[in-house]
Design brief:
The chain is mostly helical and about 180 residues long. The protein has eight helices and two strands; from the N terminus they run αααααααββα. It is found in: Nucleus.
């Protein structure tokens, strides 16, 4: 771009017209006019200082630092990155989203299921099914059958506090 501007100015100083410069360099006339105007006003073809408030925290140095930390450990939370770098959490999240193209997520934690815990769960489920079958028998209801297991499909129709008393009062809804 700078070499194109320099070419425009050198042709202008050789007394070529805007139209001729535009056709020789295959650039729009407006580009030639703007470059000549800028050269006449400021005496240079380099980029001028922009107006407005300059970036203070989202600098290329900070962006690079956050990028390195996130790529080194992708499980690191933005809160920890903010604490370690001394940059505000909002700014770190903004840089991660807008500058690095990262999407926010929360790491989901789940219970580790070993063979032992799977067996314990299975035994508890069998006990629960036996208990529900006994409840059905006590209420004189036929339990809903699914995959050869007996269980009721509804819970207590009352409020949350009435769930335990639902067995005695017969407030369960059943599928026949």
């Amino acid at each position: 771009m700078a070499s194109q501007r320099d070419s425009i100015i050198s042709l202008f100083l050789k007394k070529n017209s805007v139209r001729k410069i535009s056709s020789l360099l295959d650039v729009p006339k407006s580009t030639v006019q703007d470059t000549i105007k800028k050269f006449c006003n400021h005496g240079t073809t380099k980029n001028l200082q922009k107006s407005g408030r300059p970036r203070s925290v989202s600098t290329s140095k900070n962006i690079k630092m956050i990028k390195m930390r996130v790529h080194r450990n992708s499980r690191l939370s933005m809160r920890k990155v903010a604490r370690e770098t001394g940059i505000s959490g909002t700014t770190v999240r903004r840089i991660a989203k807008n500058e690095l193209g990262l999407k926010p997520y929360k790491l989901q934690k789940a219970q580790l299921l070993t063979e032992k815990t799977k067996k314990v769960r299975l035994e508890r489920c069998k006990l629960l099914l036996q208990w529900l079958a006994a409840c059905c028998k006590a209420l004189g209801r036929e339990p809903f059958r699914s995959q050869s297991l007996d269980f009721p499909t509804g819970l207590c129709s009352g409020t949350q506090g009435e769930r335990s008393s639902g067995l005695v009062q017969g407030q369960f809804s059943w599928v026949h």
